[in-house]
Amino acid sequence: MIFVRGAKGKKDRTTILSDMIVGFPDTYFNEYKPNYRVIEGPARKQYSETSVLNIIKNTAKKADISRTVTPHMLRHSFATHLLEQGVDLRHIQMLLGHSSSKTTEIYTHVSKKSLANIKSPLDRFIESKVVNSNKLKK
Fold it and tell me: How does DSSP classify residue 15?
């Protein structure tokens, strides 16, 4: 978990940090020795919105992503992936720092991939009966 101070909408929030980069903060802190902000721009100032956008655009370009990528798209993708993993909407609301669940519900658009993976309750019921009857025959 990480605490983000003064994030989007000047709100403080707690969110998650990937297990894949757990060691990264120690390496980063030792090398750059930030004063106040974890990630500081030139002269130890806060990055501007334009600088963040440019960093994301350049990173997308290096990754051969032809589509325009924005910070909001990353936030939206984060929320969508959590939702597709079955994370409760209230937890996503907390992670995004939304005060209203209505704001978080924007992310509940349903992907076709998610819909295709849904099994009919009737199919699940019949499958369980077949499995159970096979066990009885053995």
Answer: E
**Per-residue pLDDT tens digits for 68-97:** 999 989 988 898 889 888 899 999 998 888
Tokens of 99: 């005060």
pTM above 0.85, yes or no: no
Alpha-carbon distance of 138 to 133, in angstroms, equals: 9
Domain boundaries, the chain: 1-47, 66-138
Helix (H, G, I), strand (E, B) or coil at 16: coil
In terms of phi and psi (left: phi > 0; alpha: psi -120 to 50; beta: otherwise), the region of 20 is alpha
CA distance 85 to 77: 12
As beta bridge partners, residue 3 has 14
Measure the CA–CA gap between 50 and 64, rounded to whole angstroms: 21
